[in-house]
Amino acid sequence: MFEAVLTLCLGAAGAADAPANGGPPPCRDLLLPGYEAPTEAGCTAALRAAPPDRAAMAGGTPDCRPVGDALAVEEIAEGVFVHAGLVAEPDRDNRGDVANLGFVIGARQVAVIDTGSAAWMGEALWRAIRQRTDKPVTHVILTHMHPDHVFGASVLEVAGAASVAHAGLTRALADRQGNYLESLARLIGPVALLGTEPPQVVLAVEDAAEIDLGGRRLHLRAWPLAHTGTDLTVFDSATGTLFAGDLLFDRHTPALDGSVRGWLAVLDRLQREAGGEILRVVPGHGATALPWPDGAAPLRRYLDTLARDTRSAIAAGLRLSDAVPRIAASEADRWELFDAYNPRNATVAFTELEWE
After folding, report:
1. What percentage of residues in the chain have a pLDDT greater than 90?
2. pTM of the predicted model, to two decimals?
3. Which tens digits make up the pLDDT trace of 169-187?
4. What pLDDT digit, counting tens, does each position of 147-165 carry?
5. Are residues 214 and 264 in the same domain?
6. Where does the Metallo-beta-lactamase domain start and stop, copy by copy (predicted)?
Protein backbone atom coordinates (compact mmCIF):
# COMPACT_ATOMS: atom_id res chain seq x y z
CA MET A 1 0.00 0.00 0.00
CA PHE A 2 1.04 3.57 -0.70
CA GLU A 3 -0.02 6.85 0.86
CA ALA A 4 0.42 10.55 0.12
CA VAL A 5 2.81 12.55 2.29
CA LEU A 6 4.01 16.12 2.43
CA THR A 7 7.43 16.96 3.86
CA LEU A 8 7.29 19.89 6.27
CA CYS A 9 10.47 21.38 7.76
CA LEU A 10 10.99 23.59 10.78
CA GLY A 11 12.64 26.27 8.69
CA ALA A 12 9.45 26.49 6.64
CA ALA A 13 7.23 26.53 9.71
CA GLY A 14 9.19 29.25 11.49
CA ALA A 15 12.65 30.77 11.01
CA ALA A 16 13.23 30.78 14.78
CA ASP A 17 13.35 26.98 14.66
CA ALA A 18 15.99 26.76 11.91
CA PRO A 19 19.35 25.22 12.90
CA ALA A 20 21.83 27.76 14.25
CA ASN A 21 24.71 26.15 12.30
CA GLY A 22 23.06 26.81 8.96
CA GLY A 23 22.59 23.10 8.21
CA PRO A 24 19.44 21.61 6.76
CA PRO A 25 16.41 22.06 9.00
CA PRO A 26 14.81 18.99 10.59
CA CYS A 27 11.72 17.81 8.75
CA ARG A 28 8.78 15.45 9.15
CA ASP A 29 6.65 13.70 6.55
CA LEU A 30 3.00 14.59 7.14
CA LEU A 31 0.34 12.13 6.04
CA LEU A 32 -2.34 13.40 3.67
CA PRO A 33 -5.16 10.96 4.44
CA GLY A 34 -7.51 9.62 1.81
CA TYR A 35 -5.08 8.94 -1.04
CA GLU A 36 -4.16 5.40 -0.07
CA ALA A 37 -3.83 2.95 -2.96
CA PRO A 38 -2.36 -0.52 -3.55
CA THR A 39 0.22 0.93 -5.97
CA GLU A 40 2.31 4.08 -6.15
CA ALA A 41 0.76 4.86 -9.51
CA GLY A 42 -2.73 4.65 -8.04
CA CYS A 43 -1.81 6.99 -5.19
CA THR A 44 -0.21 9.44 -7.62
CA ALA A 45 -3.28 9.36 -9.85
CA ALA A 46 -5.49 10.14 -6.84
CA LEU A 47 -3.32 13.14 -5.98
CA ARG A 48 -3.55 14.45 -9.52
CA ALA A 49 -7.30 14.01 -9.61
CA ALA A 50 -7.89 15.91 -6.35
CA PRO A 51 -4.85 17.93 -5.19
CA PRO A 52 -5.07 18.58 -1.44
CA ASP A 53 -5.57 22.13 -0.22
CA ARG A 54 -3.36 21.37 2.77
CA ALA A 55 -0.34 20.88 0.50
CA ALA A 56 -0.81 24.31 -1.08
CA MET A 57 -1.14 25.92 2.33
CA ALA A 58 2.07 24.33 3.53
CA GLY A 59 3.96 25.41 0.43
CA GLY A 60 5.14 21.90 -0.42
CA THR A 61 4.54 19.25 -3.05
CA PRO A 62 3.11 15.91 -1.91
CA ASP A 63 4.28 12.57 -3.22
CA CYS A 64 3.50 8.92 -2.63
CA ARG A 65 5.47 6.60 -0.36
CA PRO A 66 4.97 3.15 1.16
CA VAL A 67 2.53 3.32 4.07
CA GLY A 68 4.14 4.42 7.33
CA ASP A 69 3.84 3.08 10.86
CA ALA A 70 0.43 2.56 12.43
CA LEU A 71 -0.43 2.70 16.12
CA ALA A 72 -0.67 -0.67 17.83
CA VAL A 73 -4.27 -1.35 18.83
CA GLU A 74 -6.10 -4.12 20.66
CA GLU A 75 -9.62 -5.26 19.83
CA ILE A 76 -11.23 -5.30 23.28
CA ALA A 77 -14.74 -6.13 22.01
CA GLU A 78 -16.22 -6.77 18.59
CA GLY A 79 -15.38 -3.76 16.43
CA VAL A 80 -13.92 -1.79 19.37
CA PHE A 81 -10.18 -1.04 19.22
CA VAL A 82 -7.97 0.68 21.78
CA HIS A 83 -4.39 1.95 21.66
CA ALA A 84 -2.73 1.98 25.09
CA GLY A 85 -0.51 5.01 25.59
CA LEU A 86 2.46 4.82 27.91
CA VAL A 87 2.05 5.64 31.59
CA ALA A 88 4.59 8.41 31.39
CA GLU A 89 5.04 12.13 31.03
CA PRO A 90 5.35 13.34 27.41
CA ASP A 91 8.96 13.51 26.26
CA ARG A 92 11.10 13.33 23.13
CA ASP A 93 11.36 9.55 23.29
CA ASN A 94 7.62 8.83 23.44
CA ARG A 95 6.67 11.93 21.34
CA GLY A 96 3.57 12.41 23.48
CA ASP A 97 2.16 8.89 23.17
CA VAL A 98 0.81 8.89 26.73
CA ALA A 99 -2.97 8.50 26.48
CA ASN A 100 -5.40 5.78 25.46
CA LEU A 101 -7.11 6.28 22.09
CA GLY A 102 -9.74 4.20 20.35
CA PHE A 103 -12.12 3.68 17.48
CA VAL A 104 -15.38 1.85 16.88
CA ILE A 105 -16.32 0.31 13.53
CA GLY A 106 -19.99 0.20 12.59
CA ALA A 107 -21.69 -1.29 9.55
CA ARG A 108 -21.30 1.95 7.58
CA GLN A 109 -18.99 4.31 9.48
CA VAL A 110 -16.14 4.61 11.96
CA ALA A 111 -15.88 6.88 15.01
CA VAL A 112 -12.60 7.74 16.71
CA ILE A 113 -12.40 8.48 20.43
CA ASP A 114 -9.47 10.76 21.32
CA THR A 115 -6.51 11.41 19.04
CA GLY A 116 -3.30 11.97 21.01
CA SER A 117 -0.85 14.80 21.55
CA ALA A 118 0.14 15.70 17.98
CA ALA A 119 -0.67 15.28 14.31
CA TRP A 120 1.67 12.31 13.97
CA MET A 121 -0.58 10.36 16.33
CA GLY A 122 -3.69 11.15 14.31
CA GLU A 123 -1.81 9.93 11.25
CA ALA A 124 -0.72 6.68 12.90
CA LEU A 125 -4.27 6.16 14.20
CA TRP A 126 -5.64 6.67 10.67
CA ARG A 127 -3.29 3.96 9.41
CA ALA A 128 -4.43 1.58 12.15
CA ILE A 129 -8.04 2.14 11.07
CA ARG A 130 -7.20 1.64 7.40
CA GLN A 131 -5.53 -1.68 8.22
CA ARG A 132 -8.92 -2.90 9.43
CA THR A 133 -11.57 -1.19 7.33
CA ASP A 134 -12.08 1.14 4.38
CA LYS A 135 -15.29 2.57 5.82
CA PRO A 136 -15.33 6.35 6.21
CA VAL A 137 -14.23 7.92 9.48
CA THR A 138 -17.15 10.26 10.12
CA HIS A 139 -16.67 11.39 13.73
CA VAL A 140 -13.82 12.25 16.07
CA ILE A 141 -15.06 12.33 19.66
CA LEU A 142 -12.92 14.22 22.17
CA THR A 143 -13.43 13.18 25.78
CA HIS A 144 -12.02 16.39 27.27
CA MET A 145 -9.74 19.35 26.59
CA HIS A 146 -6.34 18.03 27.71
CA PRO A 147 -3.63 18.15 25.02
CA ASP A 148 -2.71 14.45 25.11
CA HIS A 149 -6.23 13.66 23.89
CA VAL A 150 -7.08 16.31 21.29
CA PHE A 151 -4.20 17.44 19.09
CA GLY A 152 -4.26 14.59 16.56
CA ALA A 153 -7.81 15.41 15.52
CA SER A 154 -7.06 17.77 12.63
CA VAL A 155 -5.63 14.90 10.55
CA LEU A 156 -8.96 13.10 10.72
CA GLU A 157 -10.86 16.33 10.10
CA VAL A 158 -8.91 16.73 6.84
CA ALA A 159 -10.14 13.24 5.93
CA GLY A 160 -13.74 14.38 6.41
CA ALA A 161 -14.48 13.53 10.04
CA ALA A 162 -16.54 15.89 12.21
CA SER A 163 -15.10 16.61 15.65
CA VAL A 164 -17.51 16.17 18.56
CA ALA A 165 -16.96 17.36 22.13
CA HIS A 166 -18.49 18.73 25.32
CA ALA A 167 -20.12 22.11 24.71
CA GLY A 168 -17.50 23.78 26.89
CA LEU A 169 -14.46 22.37 25.13
CA THR A 170 -14.00 24.93 22.35
CA ARG A 171 -13.81 27.87 24.75
CA ALA A 172 -11.74 26.00 27.33
CA LEU A 173 -9.24 24.83 24.73
CA ALA A 174 -9.02 28.25 23.08
CA ASP A 175 -8.04 29.72 26.44
CA ARG A 176 -5.28 27.14 26.93
CA GLN A 177 -4.12 25.88 23.54
CA GLY A 178 -1.27 28.37 23.20
CA ASN A 179 0.24 27.21 26.48
CA TYR A 180 -0.50 23.58 25.64
CA LEU A 181 1.28 23.75 22.29
CA GLU A 182 4.23 25.67 23.72
CA SER A 183 4.60 23.09 26.47
CA LEU A 184 4.33 20.17 24.03
CA ALA A 185 6.97 21.69 21.75
CA ARG A 186 9.32 21.86 24.72
CA LEU A 187 8.51 18.34 25.97
CA ILE A 188 8.28 16.27 22.79
CA GLY A 189 10.28 18.54 20.49
CA PRO A 190 9.12 20.85 17.70
CA VAL A 191 9.68 18.26 14.97
CA ALA A 192 7.22 15.82 16.56
CA LEU A 193 4.71 18.67 16.75
CA LEU A 194 4.98 19.68 13.08
CA GLY A 195 1.61 19.85 11.35
CA THR A 196 -0.32 19.92 14.63
CA GLU A 197 -3.39 22.17 14.71
CA PRO A 198 -6.21 22.58 17.25
CA PRO A 199 -9.41 20.64 16.54
CA GLN A 200 -12.42 22.39 15.08
CA VAL A 201 -15.47 21.15 16.96
CA VAL A 202 -18.63 21.09 14.83
CA LEU A 203 -20.92 19.14 17.17
CA ALA A 204 -21.03 20.46 20.74
CA VAL A 205 -22.82 18.22 23.24
CA GLU A 206 -24.72 20.12 25.93
CA ASP A 207 -26.20 17.08 27.66
CA ALA A 208 -26.46 13.94 25.53
CA ALA A 209 -26.25 12.89 21.90
CA GLU A 210 -26.23 9.75 19.75
CA ILE A 211 -24.15 8.77 16.75
CA ASP A 212 -25.37 5.98 14.48
CA LEU A 213 -22.47 4.17 12.83
CA GLY A 214 -24.78 1.70 11.12
CA GLY A 215 -25.95 -1.22 13.22
CA ARG A 216 -24.52 0.30 16.38
CA ARG A 217 -25.16 3.51 18.27
CA LEU A 218 -22.76 5.47 20.39
CA HIS A 219 -24.34 7.31 23.32
CA LEU A 220 -22.51 10.49 24.30
CA ARG A 221 -22.91 12.16 27.68
CA ALA A 222 -21.58 15.55 28.76
CA TRP A 223 -20.85 15.75 32.50
CA PRO A 224 -20.73 18.57 35.04
CA LEU A 225 -17.40 19.73 36.46
CA ALA A 226 -15.39 16.64 37.46
CA HIS A 227 -11.93 15.67 36.14
CA THR A 228 -12.27 18.84 34.04
CA GLY A 229 -15.16 21.06 33.04
CA THR A 230 -15.31 19.38 29.62
CA ASP A 231 -15.69 15.65 30.34
CA LEU A 232 -17.61 13.54 27.81
CA THR A 233 -18.18 9.78 27.89
CA VAL A 234 -18.93 7.48 24.96
CA PHE A 235 -20.97 4.30 25.43
CA ASP A 236 -21.15 1.60 22.78
CA SER A 237 -24.38 -0.18 23.63
CA ALA A 238 -23.65 -3.03 21.19
CA THR A 239 -20.76 -4.28 23.33
CA GLY A 240 -21.37 -2.61 26.69
CA THR A 241 -18.13 -0.65 26.36
CA LEU A 242 -17.75 2.78 27.96
CA PHE A 243 -14.97 5.13 26.88
CA ALA A 244 -14.51 7.16 30.06
CA GLY A 245 -11.65 9.39 28.99
CA ASP A 246 -9.86 10.73 32.06
CA LEU A 247 -12.88 10.21 34.27
CA LEU A 248 -11.08 6.91 34.90
CA PHE A 249 -7.35 6.38 35.50
CA ASP A 250 -5.48 3.10 35.82
CA ARG A 251 -1.91 2.99 37.28
CA HIS A 252 -1.31 6.63 36.27
CA THR A 253 -1.93 8.97 39.22
CA PRO A 254 -5.27 10.73 38.60
CA ALA A 255 -5.03 14.34 37.48
CA LEU A 256 -7.53 16.75 39.03
CA ASP A 257 -8.26 19.80 36.89
CA GLY A 258 -11.82 20.37 38.08
CA SER A 259 -13.65 19.33 41.25
CA VAL A 260 -12.96 16.38 43.54
CA ARG A 261 -16.55 16.50 44.78
CA GLY A 262 -17.85 16.67 41.25
CA TRP A 263 -15.68 13.77 40.13
CA LEU A 264 -16.93 11.53 42.93
CA ALA A 265 -20.50 12.52 42.10
CA VAL A 266 -20.02 11.57 38.44
CA LEU A 267 -18.65 8.16 39.41
CA ASP A 268 -21.72 7.67 41.62
CA ARG A 269 -24.07 8.65 38.78
CA LEU A 270 -22.33 6.38 36.27
CA GLN A 271 -22.70 3.41 38.57
CA ARG A 272 -26.28 4.28 39.53
CA GLU A 273 -27.62 5.19 36.09
CA ALA A 274 -25.76 2.82 33.76
CA GLY A 275 -23.96 0.36 35.98
CA GLY A 276 -25.93 -2.65 34.79
CA GLU A 277 -25.32 -1.87 31.11
CA ILE A 278 -21.57 -1.26 31.31
CA LEU A 279 -19.50 -4.43 30.93
CA ARG A 280 -16.09 -2.84 30.48
CA VAL A 281 -14.63 0.64 30.61
CA VAL A 282 -11.71 2.17 28.71
CA PRO A 283 -9.71 4.49 30.97
CA GLY A 284 -7.92 7.54 29.66
CA HIS A 285 -4.61 6.13 30.89
CA GLY A 286 -3.42 2.64 31.77
CA ALA A 287 -5.04 -0.63 30.70
CA THR A 288 -6.93 -0.86 27.43
CA ALA A 289 -10.03 -1.95 29.36
CA LEU A 290 -11.13 -2.57 32.94
CA PRO A 291 -14.16 -4.35 34.41
CA TRP A 292 -16.96 -2.18 35.70
CA PRO A 293 -17.46 -1.14 38.45
CA ASP A 294 -14.46 -2.89 40.04
CA GLY A 295 -12.05 -1.13 37.69
CA ALA A 296 -13.04 2.22 39.19
CA ALA A 297 -12.38 1.16 42.81
CA PRO A 298 -8.75 2.38 42.99
CA LEU A 299 -9.69 5.76 41.56
CA ARG A 300 -12.58 6.12 44.01
CA ARG A 301 -10.30 5.21 46.91
CA TYR A 302 -7.76 7.82 45.81
CA LEU A 303 -10.36 10.57 45.40
CA ASP A 304 -11.97 9.71 48.75
CA THR A 305 -8.54 9.88 50.40
CA LEU A 306 -7.73 13.14 48.65
CA ALA A 307 -10.96 14.72 49.86
CA ARG A 308 -10.74 13.33 53.39
CA ASP A 309 -7.12 14.34 53.93
CA THR A 310 -7.77 17.79 52.50
CA ARG A 311 -10.70 18.38 54.85
CA SER A 312 -8.60 17.18 57.80
CA ALA A 313 -5.79 19.58 56.89
CA ILE A 314 -8.22 22.48 56.58
CA ALA A 315 -9.86 21.60 59.88
CA ALA A 316 -6.42 21.51 61.53
CA GLY A 317 -5.74 25.03 60.29
CA LEU A 318 -2.77 24.02 58.09
CA ARG A 319 -1.54 26.40 55.44
CA LEU A 320 -1.63 25.13 51.86
CA SER A 321 2.15 24.72 51.69
CA ASP A 322 2.13 22.57 54.83
CA ALA A 323 -0.94 20.59 53.84
CA VAL A 324 0.07 19.55 50.31
CA PRO A 325 2.84 17.07 51.28
CA ARG A 326 0.45 15.30 53.67
CA ILE A 327 -2.65 15.08 51.50
CA ALA A 328 -3.17 11.57 50.04
CA ALA A 329 0.38 10.60 51.00
CA SER A 330 -0.87 7.10 51.89
CA GLU A 331 -1.60 6.55 48.17
CA ALA A 332 1.98 7.16 47.03
CA ASP A 333 2.95 3.50 46.55
CA ARG A 334 -0.22 2.65 44.64
CA TRP A 335 0.22 4.92 41.62
CA GLU A 336 2.84 5.82 39.04
CA LEU A 337 3.90 9.45 38.50
CA PHE A 338 2.64 10.27 41.99
CA ASP A 339 5.13 13.05 42.71
CA ALA A 340 4.27 14.76 39.43
CA TYR A 341 0.50 14.82 39.95
CA ASN A 342 -0.49 14.47 43.59
CA PRO A 343 0.85 17.88 44.73
CA ARG A 344 -1.23 19.54 41.98
CA ASN A 345 -4.28 17.52 42.97
CA ALA A 346 -3.84 18.45 46.63
CA THR A 347 -3.59 22.12 45.70
CA VAL A 348 -6.76 22.00 43.59
CA ALA A 349 -8.66 20.06 46.26
CA PHE A 350 -7.53 22.43 49.04
CA THR A 351 -8.60 25.47 47.02
CA GLU A 352 -12.00 23.89 46.39
CA LEU A 353 -12.75 22.47 49.83
CA GLU A 354 -11.58 25.35 51.99
CA TRP A 355 -14.76 27.16 50.92
CA GLU A 356 -17.20 24.37 51.80
Report:
1. 87
2. 0.94
3. 999 999 999 999 999 999 9
4. 999 999 999 999 999 999 9
5. yes
6. 98-285
SS (H, E, C) the chain: CEEEEEEEEHHHHCHHHCCCCCCCCCEEEEEEEEEEECCHHHHHHHHHHCCCHHHHHHCCCCEEEECCCCCCCEEEECCEEEECCCCCCCCCCCCCCCCCEEEEECCCCEEEECCCCCHHHHHHHHHHHHCCCCCCEEEEECCCCCHHHHCCHHHHHHCCCEEEEECCHHHHHHHHHHHHHHHHHHHHCCCCCCCCCCCCEEEEECCEEEEECCCCEEEEEECCCCCCCCCEEEEECCCCEEEEEEEEECCECCCCCCCHHHHHHHHHHHHHHHCCCCCEEEEEECCCCEECCHHHHHHHHHHHHHHHHHHHHHHCCCCHHHHCCCCCHHHHHHCECHHHHHHHHHHHHHHHHCCC
| Residue 243 pLDDT greater than 70, yes or no | yes
Same domain, yes or no: 161 and 261: yes
Query: Tens digit of pLDDT for each residue in 104-139?
Result: 999 999 999 999 999 999 999 999 999 999 999 999
80 and 225 in a single domain? The answer is: yes
Residue 244 sits in the same domain as residue 329: no
The mean pLDDT value for 300-321 works out to: 97
Same structural domain for residues 99 and 151? Answer: yes
Provide the number of structural domains found in the chain.
3
Q: Residue 219's domain spans which residues?
A: 70-294
List pLDDT tens digits, range 191-203: 999 999 999 999 9
Same domain, 308 and 257: no
